[in-house]
Every structure is written in C-alpha cells, then in structure tokens.
Design goal:
The chain has a five-stranded antiparallel sheet with strand order 7-6-5-4-8. A three-stranded mixed sheet has the order 1-2-3. The chain folds into two domains: 77 residues, GMP Synthetase, Chain A, domain 3; 67 residues, SH3 type barrels, CATH 2.30.30.180. By secondary structure, the chain is an alpha+beta fold.
Length: 161
C-alpha cells in the first residue's frame, strides 16, 4: 500500500467495527519520527478512554496489520487518547463541541488576533464562527467573529479547570 492517505483510510476501515463497542477513531497519522516511522492512532470511547481501551485497540489493530501487512516497511504502532486538548479535525468534532471553549490558531492575523481562546460556533466549508473569550473568566470579550476557513490553522479544545 502506498501513501499516507491510503494507510489512514485502511486503518479507519479496519477499526470501524469497533464503533459498535463505543470506540471512535479520532485521527490516524503515519509519519517519520526521527529515523523511524510511526503509525499513530488516536482513539476515544464513550465516557472516555483509558489505558485498557487503548491496549485493546492496539492488540486488535496489531493483529489486522500482521495479517494484511499493508505498510511494507518497518514502523512502530502507537495507540493513544487524543487528549483533553484534542484538536478538532472533522466536521463531526466541530458540531459535537459547539459552544465550548477552544484555542484557535490562525495562519495569519485576523481582526487583530492570531492565537486566542474562544467559544466555538458553527463551522462551514467557508468559515468558522467563534466568540473570543477571556482565558480566565471565559467571558466573551467581543462579538462573534466569522473567520475564513483558509486562515484556520488549528482548533483545539481548551483545558478548563
């Protein structure tokens, strides 16, 4: 199998049956890590995922990878949670977390902001709506912004204590 996209699609398809057990594939990355290659799989589960859940997914996926051998080169497999400050990557992620605090990073400044905390609004193919907030109080500091989607570098959940 060639290409990172094909590996990602293959892993997502192989893990799809685990959704019946409450697992969700958050993201799949196949990348060089120093001199080595790594297949990183980020999974979540209804109610949160722990070490046991990651281990179960790792065993299941390792068996499938050994059977099919889709990669054809040496690599290490890492299965983990996407974390509390997980990046939002899919439209479903944005819809699920609408209204919650996020950290928005832009490729270049927009309305005087490049990286800022905000309440997540609607995401479309053209724009992301967010309301900038104070990082401490979480209170809005201005009206909702409509940021062109091509300016959005990354959106992560904000860890709030």
């Amino acid at each position: 199998m060639s290409g990172k996209t094909n590996i990602k699609a293959w892993v997502e398809a192989v893990l799809a049956p685990l959704s019946a057990e409450g697992y969700e594939v958050w993201n799949v990355e196949y990348a060089k890590d120093g001199a080595d290659k790594q297949l990183r799989v980020f999974v979540d589960k209804d109610g949160g995922i722990g070490i046991d859940g990651c281990e179960a997914v790792s065993r299941f996926l390792s068996e499938k990878l050994d059977e099919a051998d889709p990669i054809g080169e040496a690599y290490s497999l890492v299965v983990s949670s996407p974390g509390m400050d997980r990046p939002l990557l899919k439209d479903a992620h944005y819809a699920r977390y609408a209204g919650v605090p996020v950290e928005v990073s832009l490729y270049k400044g927009f309305e005087g902001r490049k990286k800022f905390p905000a309440l997540l609004g609607e995401k479309t193919d053209e724009a992301l709506k967010v309301t900038p907030i104070d990082a401490q109080t979480l209170a809005p500091v201005c009206e909702e912004l409509t940021v062109p989607i091509e300016l959005v570098s990354q959106v992560r959940l904000m860890v709030v204590f």
